[in-house]
Design goal:
Radius of gyration: 18 Å
Distance between the termini: 61 Å
Number of helices: 11
Order of helices and strands: HHHHHHHHHHH
Number of domains: 1
CATH class: Mainly Alpha
Strand content: under 5%
CATH topology: Heme Oxygenase, Chain A
Helix content: over 70%
CATH superfamily: Heme oxygenase-like
Structural class: mainly alpha
Length: about 230
């Protein structure tokens, strides 16, 4: 019938909903990157990012294993397990990259590993284990969609490095993610669009994505309020 348009894909719908809910996250990110004392707070920010990223592969492995366990009776879990089996190796050792960057700033690995992470990070990661083990592992796609969905651009990272006059080597992880994450986002979008999700499962992915974005905004604001 003329005049009809194709329905939006799941990935496009998810991105639109995230953007509608992103005002606080965008404001917190802008406040951080433009903060006049970012040079003094940058090592603390890297620590907080490391606290999040060190949990990401274990979270995805838990989702992969749970999905594989359920796959015989759940076609969605079979496709999720396959996606995660491919994606998990792509994310390994990114926490090590941040430890390298922190060493450039004079923060040793030992110092990072004995420092207590924020309860905000524990709440973010802990929510993923709840969804994975107590409801459905498909929720993890919302978490991944946010963590890999909107990395700072390479141009922004280089402007911040110039403004702070911190060593360029302290920004290596951000530069790598600026280059890698757009490809990972495209892979996730394609996987999400191909998966046989019910409306309720699609809603779960969206809920977890919005909550992940909320916790990340709180983490950014905590960086600004501490110290």
């Amino acid at each position: 019938m003329s005049g009809m348009t194709e329905p939006m894909s799941r990935s496009v719908t998810l991105r639109l909903k995230l953007e509608l809910a992103a005002d606080d996250y965008h404001a917190a990110a802008a406040a951080l990157w433009s903060h006049p004392q970012l040079r003094l707070r940058f090592a603390d920010y890297l620590f907080r990012i490391h606290s999040i990223i060190r949990a990401s592969v274990p979270v995805m492995e838990a989702a992969r294993d749970r999905a594989a366990h359920l796959a015989a009776d759940d076609p969605l879990c079979a496709t999720l397990a396959a996606y995660l089996a491919h994606h998990v190796p792509e994310e390994r050792h990114h926490d090590e990259w941040l430890l390298d960057d922190l060493e450039v700033l004079g923060v040793s690995r030992a110092t990072v590993m004995v420092r207590q992470p924020s309860p905000i990070v524990a709440a973010l990661a802990g929510a993923q284990y709840y969804w994975i083990h107590h409801y459905h592992p498909i929720a993890v796609l919302g978490y991944i969609a946010v963590l890999e969905g909107t990395p700072p651009s390479e141009a922004l990272v280089r402007r911040v490095q110039k403004a702070t006059q911190l060593p360029a080597a302290a920004f290596r992880t951000f530069i790598k993610h600026a280059r890698l994450d757009p490809h990972h986002r495209d892979d996730l979008n394609a996987a999400l669009d191909a998966m046989p999700l019910s409306n309720a499962q699609e809603e779960l992915v969206t809920i977890n994505a919005i909550e992940t974005q909320h916790w990340l905004a709180r983490s950014l604001r905590e960086t600004l309020s501490d110290g």
